[in-house]
Each structure stands twice: as C-alpha cells, then as structure tokens.
Amino acid sequence: MKAQPFKAIVSDANVLIDYVKANKKILHLAVKHLCEIYIPVPVLKEVKDISRGELEKLGINIFEPTIDQLIQAAQKPFGLSFEDQLFF
Amino acid sequence: MTTNPIAINLRRLRGSRGITQGDLAKKAKLSRIAYSNVENGKASPRVNNLQQIADALDVSIQELVTPVPTINSLRFRAKKMSTGHARDSRDQIVAEVAFWLRDYSGLEEKLSKQRPNVFKNIKANNPKEYAAKVREIWKLENDEPINDICGLVEHAGVKIKLLKSDLDVFFGLSAYDQNGYPAIVVNVREDISVERQIFTVAHELGHIVMHQGSFDGGFAEEREKEEKEADQFASYFLMPQEAFEKSWEENKGLHWLKSILHIKRVYKISYRTVINRLVEQGVDKKIWESFNLEYQKQYGGNLRNHKEPHSLDPLDFLEDRLSALTQEALAKELISVSRAAAILDISIEEMRDRINAWSLVNESATV
Q: Which helix (H) or strand (E) holds B219?
C-alpha cells in the first residue's frame, strides 16, 4: 500500500512571511521533497508580498475553512488570534 | 430581529459606510437577493462568498463572524442621530470600542496590571471643585499646565482609545469595562483640532468623576446639564482659575489677542476656552466678535469652521499604554505575534516592523 504523503498547514502568517522574505523558492522545494503544504485563505490575506496565484504555482494548496471553523475560531482564548485558532 | 452575528455585523458595517445592499452585492460580485438573504439571516453564506463580501467591505472575514462583546456601561457623547447611516456609524464605533476594551482588559488581567479606580469616591459641590480634587489626587500644582493628558489619565488607570470616525457629531465617549475600570474614547479625525481632542478627554473624565450614575449603556441624547458640567470640569481641570489669573496678569503688557493665544498655547486648550473664561469673569460677550476681527487684522486668516489658530500638533496627543502592555505580553510569550497585531489593530507586517523597532531601541538602550 502506498504511504500517504505528509501534509502541513501554515496557520501562522509569520511563517509564510519569513519564507517569502527569505526566498519563495524554498516553499517549492518543501512541496517537492517534504510534504504537501496547505494555506487557509484568512492566513494568506495577511501576507502582502505573495499572491494566491504565485503560491499555487509553487505547488501550495490554498483552501477555504468552513463557516463552522470560522465561527469556532472567533470564540478564541485570549492569547491566540483568530487565524492562530483556525486549525487548533 | 436576528441574533446571527454575520447578519448583525453585515448590517452595521454596510450601514456605517452608507452603501445600499445593491451596491455592496455588486462590489462583492453577488446577486442582490443572495446578499440580502445573508444580511437578513435567511441564508448561511458559502465561505468564498463571505470572503468576497469581506473584501468588498475592506474588512477581515473575522469581523463578519465574530459577535460584538457587550458594553454594559457607556456614555456616548454626540448630538441626536437623525439618520440610519448615523446610527449604524455610532454602532460601528461602539463595536470597535467593545473589542478594544475586551482586549485591553484581557491584557491587563494577564499581566496583573489593573489599576485601581481612584475616582470612585470623590465628593464635591460643583465641577470646579471636582476638577481641583482630581488635580490634587494627581499632585498637580495649581498653575501647572497638563502637558501629556493621555499619559496622566492612563497612569491613573483610565484606558484611552484614539479613534478616527467620520460621524461628524461624534467627539468622544466614556465607558466602563466588565471589571468596572473606566475608559475614554476620542475622535481624532483630522478636522478636529488637537485642542478639542484634549478637551474631550477632560470632558469625559468629568463624566467619569461626576456622573457615575448615568452610564447606562444607552444612547440618550446629550443631557444638557451634565454636558455643561463636564465642560466646566474640563475647563477648570485644564486651566485652574488661579493659573488663568496669574497668566493673564503676567501677560499684561501684551495685546489682549496675543495674551489669549499665549495662554491657550501654555495650557494646550482652545482659544474658545480662554474666551469663555474671560466671559465668565464678566468680560463683554462682544469679545468673540472682536477676537475674530482682530485676529483677521493681525494674522490675515479667519477662524470659520472651528479652525483653531496656532494649533497643536497630533504629536502633542498620543496614547501608548496599550502598546506597552502588548509589548510586555509578547515578551513574556503570553500572546502570539498575530494576536498582538489584532490587539493593536495593525497588520502582521506592521506588527513585525514594530517589533523590530522595539528591539532596536531596547538593544540600543542596553549598550
């Protein structure tokens, strides 16, 4: 049986900003050699220097959370932001 | 009436921008009926449609799905709201204040930095006496100008928010958070002079000190008597009578126009506050007209539309306690970077720049 590929979600815009500022191509290498990468739209919206199209070209999957996930994230504990809470 | 937070938020945000359902639907690339069903709570939107609406309103999707926290004690300073747009704008201000107050109180709690409410038990007979007592609590000399009203008030545990609103009848409000700590919000729109913004802080402080029983969470029109008392409090708090008399005496050699302008600069108040004080002292009300004419003669400009002559700079009116608490909470890893950005209502990229700026100064300070 073929093993399922690892999947990773970038839930913190800071991580994405760091990679974009350092070298966008790292993201493509990560997709190619390490795992599938997913970024939720609300996290992408926080990053100015890269577009959805560019990320998709690098092999990254952009996806929309469900309404329920959004509503749950809005009931966050104090220390985390809405985006931090989306997938925790 | 719907209790669906998405519907409530949409209605308020759209109304405060003064746009129709049709205009917003078009901007969000939706049919008017589809949009209307979401705003009326009749349909649950698909997330991509909600994102399109958020983009059209230029807000985050979070603002559409998060219920606005309740503020139990609020005093909104504004004249009568005669249009739906004005009422929605007012509700939008209250929503922004509610989130800000919740975050600010949360930070204070996390950091154990709540400050006692020192205004609770002050008793006096009139606004002038109240102003003197507050100055006494803060150990201000009788003739001492207040150079940093935000710093002073924040130090005493009153939260301050500077907010820009296009609602032309709105200058400020005061409120209490869920723990009973007071807060003041000031409209810092560009056409409102810094002097007026400073006066608003003092005016709202007057309400907090003198009218604690009238914070009911409602939007009653301004109560004339209380407003006059708060104005009087503000005037005497910013410029005690002794200070005014001393300055007027010291300026005896100056032309009266220059004396008014000088005093207004010293105490960071409007020329109107100085003239009002002169009128209170028995000077003829014609001084208003004379001031305008004389000003025009000496300086060549007129003072229409609430123009403030020789006015202060926005740098004279800054608040920083929330930012300092956020910095501390970040350093102690009590909040994430994106949460810090949300608390300060800035983007993550701006937050990163700010963190770099903080590090730069802190590192330089330790060298």
A: none
